[in-house]
Design brief:
The protein is an all-beta fold and about 70 residues long. About 0% of the residues lie in helices and about 35% in strands. The chain contains no helices and five strands.
């Protein structure tokens, strides 16, 4: 089994897939990267307005934003 590390930067979006059928999908913007070289944990502002420290799991995808 291949393990793929999550790497993100400020401004990227995190999308957390539902773990069961008809479950909600969460998405949010990375506000701060606390790990080295884009590694977790991340401070995320979720689409519902809440902010918090997030350690992504295998159900998390990163949508990279173009950076200057």
């Amino acid at each position: 089994m291949e393990v793929v590390a999550v790497k993100a930067a400020v401004g990227d979006r995190l999308v957390v897939r539902a773990t069961h059928v008809d479950g909600a999908v969460r998405d949010g913007e990375v506000l701060e990267v606390r790990g080295a070289n884009g590694d977790p944990p991340y401070v995320v502002r979720w689409s519902d307005g809440h902010e918090g420290l997030f350690f992504p799991g295998s159900d998390t995808a990163v949508e990279h934003e173009p950076h200057a």
